[in-house]
Specification:
About 75% of the residues lie in helices and about 0% in strands. It has a single domain, classed as Four Helix Bundle (Hemerythrin (Met), subunit A) (Up-down Bundle), CATH 1.20.120.50. By secondary structure, it is an all-alpha fold. The protein is built from five helices and no strands. It binds fe (ii) ion (2 copies). The site of one fe (ii) ion has 5 residues, from helix 2 and helix 4.
Length: about 140
């Protein structure tokens, strides 16, 4: 069973952003699947973490460029959450490459962070961008 199900409440109504969020949910599920195996492939876990880190950075850039273009007033607090997430994923990458087995902790973090961030922090910019004709 997937760790995270995509649900209507996660949809913000901005096609590009929704597609990116779906990708992140899928990547979290793939990591969950790999870590749930009796003997997870270390190279597969490394590749999944690296993919997650890169994709997340690109997704954050997409949002931050929109904030910059339209002068979103909550941009700084939003950036802060993004930076915290990137730092956390990089720390997990380091722990994994140092040989530490990853388990439930990272999955819980990813699931909770993504849900909280999309439902609260990302959802908060939707009315602002809608007023400016972005969606
Ligand atoms: Fe965000
Ligand atoms: Fe987002």
């Amino acid at each position: 069973m997937a760790l995270m199900e995509w649900s209507k409440d996660l949809e913000l109504g901005i096609a590009e952003i929704d597609a990116q969020h779906r990708w992140l949910v899928n990547a979290t599920n793939e990591l969950h699947e790999e870590l749930g195996k009796g003997a997870p492939s270390q190279s597969e876990v490394s590749a999944l973490l690296a993919g997650l880190a890169t994709y997340t950075i690109n997704h954050f850039v997409t949002e931050e460029l929109l904030f910059e273009r339209y002068g979103y007033p909550q941009a700084e607090a939003h950036h802060k959450e993004h930076r915290h997430f990137v730092r956390a994923v990089k720390e997990w990458e380091q722990r994994h490459s140092a040989g530490e087995p990853l388990g439930k902790e990272i999955l819980t973090f990813l699931k909770e962070w993504l849900r909280y961030h999309i439902l609260k922090t990302d959802r908060a910019y939707v009315p602002f961008l809608k007023q400016r004709g972005v969606c």
